[in-house]
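Researcher: We plan to redesign the surface later, but first we want a full-length starting point. Tokens attached.
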């Protein structure tokens, strides 16, 4: 069975975020960092070389594959700031309609700039996703 590539690294979150060249993206990251600290009440950790993750949950698939992953997190990607909503988006239609301008993948929320979204709605989305993941995978 293949090992999960994205694991905690022990590297410095502050150093990583300080290395983000684009000032606006770096500022957006610092805002999301603060928001996620408030929501999760946990210290951030680096997961792989470029993801800042908060908290953990344990998963186990029917196939027997299991592991640990972060409850929520973010990464300053080249095209956008990626926010990881591990619960997905299906149950959050009302919040998504009020969030603002974004794109989504399975568990990824792609935001060009935090100016494009409602931060209080983003916070509620993260809160509800974290709460769901904690219930689903204690």
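Model: Full-length starting sequence:
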């Amino acid at each position: 069975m293949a090992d999960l590539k994205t694991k905690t690294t022990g590297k410095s979150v502050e150093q990583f975020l300080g290395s983000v060249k684009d000032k606006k993206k770096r500022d957006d990251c610092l805002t999301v960092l603060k928001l996620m600290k408030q929501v999760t009440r946990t210290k951030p950790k680096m997961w792989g070389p470029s993801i800042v993750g908060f908290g953990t949950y344990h998963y186990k698939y029917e196939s027997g594959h299991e592991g640990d992953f972060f409850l929520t997190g973010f990464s300053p990607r080249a095209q956008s700031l990626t926010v990881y909503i591990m619960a997905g988006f299906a149950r959050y239609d009302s919040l998504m309609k009020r969030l603002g301008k974004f794109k989504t993948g399975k568990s990824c929320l792609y935001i060009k700039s935090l100016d494009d979204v409602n931060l209080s709605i983003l916070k509620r989305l993260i809160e509800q996703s974290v709460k769901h993941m904690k219930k689903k995978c204690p």
